[in-house]
Structures are given as structure tokens and as C-alpha cells.
């Protein structure tokens, strides 16, 4: 059974490689899994935002889990997203994820409707109790429409099968407050989800990261996290500055917007340039055109020159 200690490290939220006719690209998934393992990832998160999870059909979600499990061959654990505004649907997806060989589920708050903190505690408690697998909370209020309070996170951390939290709030002060009140507990891990906050977060006690930009350069994030956890402030600053300089690549195809096609498209473009998968996105996402690639490469080329990216 997966435990919190297994999540202390980089858990890339993998993209979902697609064929030209919008099927799961099985061979590309296998290449990605090998690449992440070789880079030092401690786990894989499938069917998250970076994987276009909410846009995938139920059948595509299940196939992606199965293909990842087959490709990983037990080398590192697979965490499977179960995104849905429906508790019943998320619980069914958790059961199927377990049957397909996943090691844990990842769940956002049920999105669209607003809920009180009491209901969110009840939701997560009921979901993990119904699930054959342990659970990681995915706290992303900008997408789920619900924000977890510090007290709610601490209450959920008491559940023995809730292993940790992916923090995509961008609120580092709140995260440090949670870490302080957890008081060094080994059974719950805080995982940073914001690229530009990772160095500071790890210096202050975050022990894991689920980082979309790791789809471009996973070794950089492995080293940044390990360096910060070791307390090497000067090197942490250097590596964080490298990340920050490249971060605008997410928006290079569609400047001034947070268009999902631009963001996930940038990740897939970085992978395409490294010979891993194509850059196709699910409709209606904006596709990355050839002229966009040059704008994206402005930010990726320095990473290639530094050895963090290896173009094919």
C-alpha cells in the first residue's frame, strides 16, 4: 500500500499523448514513462490538468491509467485523477482505477457548485472510505471553485488513508502555516504545484512537487527540490531563477492569456522537440501551430543549452 513517504519527490502530472485521430498514443506514453523514471521521478500523476483530464472521456481516462500501469511496470507508483463534480462518479472512477492497477487516487474538490468546509470534509472522507486506494487532495480553487481552509486540511490529514495535498493555490503563507501545524508528521506530505514557488516552498518544508513544467524538464525539478530540501540556499536560488526565466513558455503561443491550449500545448511541444510525443490537443483546445514553436523555443533553448532539455 502506498504511503506518504513514497510521494516525497517529483511526481510529474503527465500529459496525455494523442494520435492524430484523438486516441491515446500508447507508444508515446511508454516513452514518457521511461523518461520520467530515468529523470528520477518518484511517481506519476495521470489525468490531471496537464493531462487534459477534464476533457478526456471516461473510456480515455481508464485507458490512460491502464497504459501507464503497463509502461511503469511497478517501478514507481501511479496516481490517477478522478475529477468530477459528482461524488458517485468519482467513487466509481476510484474503483476502476484500483482494478486497473493504480496506486492512489487524486481528487479536487467537487467543482462547479460551492460547498461549506463541513461538506468538503465529508466529501473527501466519504470518497477515501469508498475507495480501494489511498487519496491525495488536489487543492486548486481556481478550477474547482472551492477553497480548502487550513483547518479543513488539518482535519483531513488525520485520516490514515489521506496521504497528502497537492497545493496549487499559490498561497505559500497558507502552506507554511499547514506545515507548521502538522509539526513534522511523516504520514502526510505537502506537495507544491506552482513552478515559481518551489524553491521557497521546499526550503520551508514542502517535501514533494507535482509540477506541470516537469513535462518539459523533469531533471531540473528533481534537482531543485532535492537541493532546497538539503538547505543549499545559493544553489536553490540559481535553479529557481532558471525555472522562472523559462516559465513564460507556457504562454508564448497565446500571450496575455491563460488559454489551456497554450499551456498544455507548450508542455507537449517541449516533449515533441525531445522526440517523446506529438503536440496534438483535444478539441476545442487551441492547437500549437508551427509558427508558435519558435516563440516557445525562445524560452526552451536556454534550458537545452544548460543540459536540462535534450532536443531530438
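Q: What amino acid sequence fits the structure above?
A:
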Amino acid at each position: 500500500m502506498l504511503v506518504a513517504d513514497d510521494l516525497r519527490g517529483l511526481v510529474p502530472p503527465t500529459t496525455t499523448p494523442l494520435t492524430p485521430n484523438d486516441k491515446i498514443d500508447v507508444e508515446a506514453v511508454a516513452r514518457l514513462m521511461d523518461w520520467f523514471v530515468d529523470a528520477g521521478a518518484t511517481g506519476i500523476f495521470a489525468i490531471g490538468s496537464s493531462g487534459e483530464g477534464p476533457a478526456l472521456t471516461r473510456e480515455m481516462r481508464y485507458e490512460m491509467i491502464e497504459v501507464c500501469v503497463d509502461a511503469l511496470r511497478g517501478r514507481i507508483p501511479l496516481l490517477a485523477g478522478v475529477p468530477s463534480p459528482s461524488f458517485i462518479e468519482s467513487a466509481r472512477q476510484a474503483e476502476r482505477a484500483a482494478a486497473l492497477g493504480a496506486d492512489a487516487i487524486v481528487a479536487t474538490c467537487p467543482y462547479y457548485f460551492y460547498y461549506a468546509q463541513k461538506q468538503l470534509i465529508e466529501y473527501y472522507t466519504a470518497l477515501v472510505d469508498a475507495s480501494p486506494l489511498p487519496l491525495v487532495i488536489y487543492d486548486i480553487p481556481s478550477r474547482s471553485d472551492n477553497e480548502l481552509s487550513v483547518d479543513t486540511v488539518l482535519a483531513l490529514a488525520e485520516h490514515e488513508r489521506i496521504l497528502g495535498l497537492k497545493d496549487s493555490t499559490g498561497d505559500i503563507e497558507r502552506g507554511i502555516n499547514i506545515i507548521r501545524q502538522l509539526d513534522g508528521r511523516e504520514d502526510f506530505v505537502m506537495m507544491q504545484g506552482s513552478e515559481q514557488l518551489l524553491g521557497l516552498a521546499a526550503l520551508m518544508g514542502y517535501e514533494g512537487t507535482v509540477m506541470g513544467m516537469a513535462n518539459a524538464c523533469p531533471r531540473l525539478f528533481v534537482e531543485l527540490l532535492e537541493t532546497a530540501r538539503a538547505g543549499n540556499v545559493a544553489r536553490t536560488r540559481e535553479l529557481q531563477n532558471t525555472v522562472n526565466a523559462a516559465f513564460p513558455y507556457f504562454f508564448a503561443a497565446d500571450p496575455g492569456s491563460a488559454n489551456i491550449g497554450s499551456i498544455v500545448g507548450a508542455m507537449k511541444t517541449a516533449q515533441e522537440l525531445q522526440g517523446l510525443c506529438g503536440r496534438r490537443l483535444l478539441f476545442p483546445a487551441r492547437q500549437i501551430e508551427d509558427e508558435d514553436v519558435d516563440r516557445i523555443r525562445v524560452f526552451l533553448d536556454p534550458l537545452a543549452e544548460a543540459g536540462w532539455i535534450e532536443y531530438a
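Q: And what stands out in the fold?
A: The mean pLDDT is 97.
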